[in-house]
Amino acid sequence: MEVKDRMKIPRQKMPEQDPKARGKNFDEVPYGYDENTAVTEAQRCLKCKKPPCVEGCPVEIDIPGFIVCIENKDFDGAIRKIKETNGLPAVCGRVCPQEDQCEVRCVVGKKGDPVAIGRLERFAADYERNKGNVFIPEIPKSTGKRIAVVGSGPAGLTAAGDLRLMGHDVTVMEALHKEGGVLVYGIPEFRLPKAIVKAEVDYLGKLGVKFISNYIVGKTRTVDELLEEYDAVFLGTGAGLPLFLNIPGENLIGVYSANEYLTRSNLMKAYLFPEYDTPIVRGKNVAVFGGGNVAMDSARTALRLGADNSYIIYRRSRVEMPARNEEIHHAEEEGINFQLLTNPIRFIGDDKGRVKGVECLRMELGEPDDSGRKRPVPIKGSEFVIEIDTAVVAIGNSPNPLVPATTPGLDTSKRGTIIADEETGLTSREGVFAGGDIVTGAATVILAMGAGKKAARAINEYVMKK
Amino acid sequence: MAKILKKERLSENTVKMVLEAPLIAEKRKAGQFVVLRINEQGERIPLTIANADKDAGTITIIFMEVGKTTSLLGTLKEGDNIMDLAGPLGNPTHIEKLGTVVCVGGGVGIAPMYPITEAMKKAGNRVITIIGAKNKDSLIMEEEMKSVSDEFLICTDDGSYGTKGFVTQVLEDVIKRGEKIDVVVAIGPVVMMKAVSKVTRPHNIKTIVSLNSIMVDATGMCGGCRVSIGGVSKFACVEGPEFDGHEVDFDELMTRQSAYGKQEHESMQCFLRDKK
Prior knowledge:
The complex is a heterodimer. Chain A is α/β, with parallel strands linked by helices. Chain A has helices at 3-8, 19-22, 35-42, 52-55, 63-71, 75-83, 89-95, 117-131, 154-165, 182-185, 194-207, 223-229, 258-267, 293-304, 325-333, 402-406, 437-440, 445-465; strands spanning 146-150, 169-173, 210-212, 232-235, 241-242, 255-257, 285-289, 309-313, 337-339, 342-349, 355-368, 374-378, 384-387, 390-393, 397-398, 432-434. Helices cover 34% and strands 16% of the residues of chain A. In chain A, α14 links the parallel β7 (285-289) and β8 (309-313). Chain B contains nine helices and 16 strands. The longest helix of chain B has 15 residues, at 261-275. The interface between A and B is large, with 40 and 41 residues.
């Protein structure tokens, strides 16, 4: 096919659940491409000799390589190509911010819409999983080296998979009862079905990665104790300590951190209460504070739990919102009420200690601040009250202190993150590597995976020299 | 998975279980707790560790059947398994030789009070123990507590055993004797810990309480367990569970504990219906 013919093909739409209907269920929103649509989309790729998209991918997927397989209807070949570097393709195809990573660099995108790399990745992963015959690569001869991976989120799973493929004996320790970290407690079913996370965890299990759940490193065993048994330790414990607004009334009943709200709903399936035992407040008027993906997830969860009004309250404008465009768009379609340039100043409670309102101030944008974004400035006298019965604070997380607090000699920053070399993940302790949100602070799934990948290489070098 | 090795009913609605948990048994210290989930549909609840046997690889939990989860737990038999058990969690009690320590346990709170009392005694303190319950039948662990105490006092609300009245009255009598008390440790219903802190405050006696706020993950991740200590929010799971009783906002804690009253009732009704 000629380049100009390829350029003429429009970016293929991905069918989605109707916005009205989906606001009442937890089923996944986009349906994914069918085979024909995937092939058509694949034809849009120019198979650049020096593909800029690959440079944008933290896990270095051979993007043109797998897309040409799809174009040739070699779907098995496509997924094998992806899995050479990415152990979580069905997850990445759904939650990666492709628009800022691979797709933003796509040559086709210079003149129109970029190739839908993420959707094609998702297609290839779903094709293989639905077929039920998952390809298991051959594991090299055992090196006899044992590696402990702490945390089963994106960083830990990636490091574990890569280390296993290098022939090491890998054990992943998870504090919760289910593997997946933020993928299972944080990201809702309608954006990332838990069955998909499970399938990808099971795949690692088939590679021979061992998993121990309910194992709290820092409490059940310390890192020092792990080092007696293992040749190296990788810390991928994430950013799991919720930040609060620090305004009056924040401990009223009905005020949640996004972590708690989403954990109750996702991991503990509170949306199926009383069939499942974990309760959650099913608010009629819910306010979510923040402008990131977690805020969108919380507001959309509130809607599905039966809210009449689900608000996003964000102190800057839509332009500065850190959430993915696609997520903001989905939220808007579902009828989430965006209160932009609005900042909460106090929660108001009723006589039973339940939240019944939030007082807010309208803001305007002033000069840029340290982050380079325009600083929100309160408009005097603009106070107003929004009546709510549930509030969800989604303004971010700081690193979980459990491991640093119990590991002498492990250097941390002022913010509480573990200090680790960017290229290798090596920390101030010999044999201890770290990556993902515990090092960077709250970031994205794919960046955590990239860190897991780099650390796996460094760990391999370290243990093989030992 | 944790196997139930022994089960014993201590009173009408208080149950003691010995669980197979070698990793936790080896690590746990007085004042720490575990989180458990009974089955796939279950919620995660924190329970204090009442005792542990390192050599046998077991821990003991003692709980009162109050809601769906604890009631269901109470129906399990020896040989059954608890799906998930994680720990030990929370900071251990700060144990050292302080002088005279008064250990106050109320109701099922006597169970977590036991390892602390034992450790305080072992550290060389003079231990005055006060335990209280509604009535004689609901009083637990009398023998165990007595065995680790220098002075042992019992009271019941209805006077069916020991002194008639609350632990606070007994504590007040001990204080009035004029003996120098270095620290009071109190575990029981929130209202009891609040009352104990009120009694000790005018005498400036350091008072430690253990807060059982609502938790989900219990590793600092959810923030559901936050309590106001001296006007500052703290996470009971990672910064507690023990705090200075004179700093705790007990009223807020009681309010927060009632957050799911309606759902807990609904859940209990479903449980009772299914049981029939």
